[in-house]
Amino acid sequence: MEEEEAHADGDMETPFPADTYAAEAMAADMDPWIVFDARRTPRSEFDSWLESNRPSQVYRFGDEQAGISPVGWIAVLGIDHCPASGDVMGLQEGWEKLLSSGRPANFQTVKELALNHGVLAGKWLMHLESGFKLDRAWECVARAAVDGRISLVKVSTHDPTGEGKQVICAHNQNFTDESDVIRLDSVIRASGVKCPLSYKPDVYTYLGIYRNNRWKLCPTIYESKFDLECVPRRSRIINKITNLEVK
Hints:
alpha+beta, nine-stranded mixed beta sheet, 32% helix
């Protein structure tokens, strides 16, 4: 699965599971995607597309005997979507230099690399068991993207041999802009999603920083839990770098 949420700290396994997650992520990115591009496709076609491509029913590795190809992701590109910019190759070269220099690999040094190379996008992650709740959450954020409130959303496809959970990603342009991270959380909540969320900068993905990595870095920097007892109901967002609630 491409975007693995950080779990509670524990003993590192050998070999590092993060390396496996990174390899799976690359494979999914390289396989064909099912995409609805709201910039080019009529809105009237969206409902039938959504019904035909429910993520719990689209299989990661297809069915060779039935002639069905593997599918890496299902995605909706919003009307204002533009591909993420930045020098990813330069970022990865800078990371290798950082590791060989003896400087610490931590959030601040990774952020510095991201700023220097313009790799600033990020995403809120929703991890859900495959089935109705996943399909419903996906429909909520996919509609928000088609309506122009999110620039890009994507969902992993179903792997019956995997962990059972699939991940929905809702993207924004700048993980260093905390107000925009909070804005995107509000859009996701307003669409109807109430499950816990975690936020991961794309730089972590490009550098292979997933949970249980060799540098002991937490790959997510915010977590959001929807408070049903608060009036009015709202998210409680924790900045995991400072361990402070975001106001």
